[in-house]
Amino acid sequence: MKNIKDILSKKIQPLLKYDPETQYPVIRSSICTGEQVAGFKSKVDGHFTEVMVIKGEKDLKEFKDMYSLGEIKKEY
């Protein structure tokens, strides 16, 4: 049986691959509903790839930790 500390200390695995050479992290926020979605935007063609819905600070921290990110640009 696994120890709870071992389970909690493991880094969350990224859901999608992120290439900082061709993509940048962004939070898309709806001006109407306020819904926020974290993902990556292509530097080449502007295509947005959704990773997860951000419902609060916990989700934002999880997204940042998952991809080892610092500050994230927000777009409306």
Strand order of the largest sheet: 3-2-1-4
| Rg, nearest Å | 14 Å
SS field, number of helical segments: 2
* Helix content class: 10-25%
Helix-strand sequence:
HEEEHE
Q: Shape, please?
A: globular
Secondary structure category = alpha+beta
Strand content: 25-35%
Which residues sit in consecutive blocks of at least 5 with pLDDT less than 50?
Answer: none
**Overall mean pLDDT:** 87
Instruction: Characterize the main sheet.
Output: 4 strands, mixed
**For the terminal residues, how far apart are their CA atoms?**
46 Å
Would you report the number of β strands?
4
Describe the structure.
- The protein has 76 residues and is an alpha+beta fold.
- The chain has 2 helices and 4 strands.
- A 4-stranded mixed beta sheet has the order 3-2-1-4, with helices on one face.
- The N and C termini lie far apart (46 Å).
- The mean pLDDT is 87.
Quick overview:
The chain has 76 residues and is of the alpha+beta class.
